[in-house]
Amino acid sequence: MKKVNILIALFAIAILSVSCESYDDYDTNRKNIVGFSALILEINNIPEGGERSRTVNLFMSDIFDEEKTFNIVAVPNLQDPATNPENYSFDTTVTFPPNTRQATITVTGIDNSIEGEEYFALAIQGEADVVSGGIVSVRVRN
After folding, report:
1. Among candidates 108, 105, 83, 118, which has minimal Cα distance to 35?
2. pLDDT digits (tens, 9 = 90+) for 88-123
C-alpha cells in the first residue's frame, strides 16, 4: 500500500509540473506565410506547336483588409531535363483579394521545343515580412 501512495504522489507531481506550461508567445507577431497548395503540377498532352494551361492554387496564412500582391519567379529545378523558358509562361504576380487566404495563378506549357517531358519550378519571392512557402515543380510534356 505504501508503494501505491508513492506512485500516486509521483503521478500528481508529474501532472502539476506539465500543466504549468505557458503559452506567452502565442500573441507575438509572426511573419505571413505565402505558398503553393501543391508541390507538383503536371501539364500533359500539350499539342505539337500549341499550348495548354493549368491553374495553381496558393495560400496565405493571414487575412488582410486590403489586397496583397506577391511576385512569382522561376527558380532552378532539381529534376532533369530542365525546360527551356520558351516552353512555358506563368503569371509573374499573384494578388490575394481582401479578406481571403486563397488565390490562383495560371501556368502555361508551350510546345516550342519540348522533347518528351521536361521540368521547371516556381517560387514566391519573399519579402521582409513574408515567408515564402516552398516551390511548385512543374512537368510539361507533349
Report:
1. 105
2. 999 999 999 999 999 999 999 999 999 889 999 999
The model carries a pTM of 0.76
What's CA 124's distance to the chain center, in Å? 8
Determine the pLDDT at residue 6. 75
Strand bridging mode 40-43 / 93-96: unpaired
CB-based burial label for 108 (10 Å; 0-12, 13-18, 19+): middle
The per-type count for the chain, helices as H runs and strands as E runs, is 1, 10
Domains and their CATH numbers in the chain: 31-141 (2.60.40.2030)
SS3 call for 4 = helix
| CA dist 38 → 3, 30, 35, 100, 103 (Å) | 55, 23, 9, 18, 13
**Cα–Cα dist 50/12, whole Å:** 71
Please state, in angstroms and rounded to a whole number, the distance separating the CA atoms of residues 76 and 110. Answer: 19
Alpha helix (H) residue ranges in the chain: 2-18
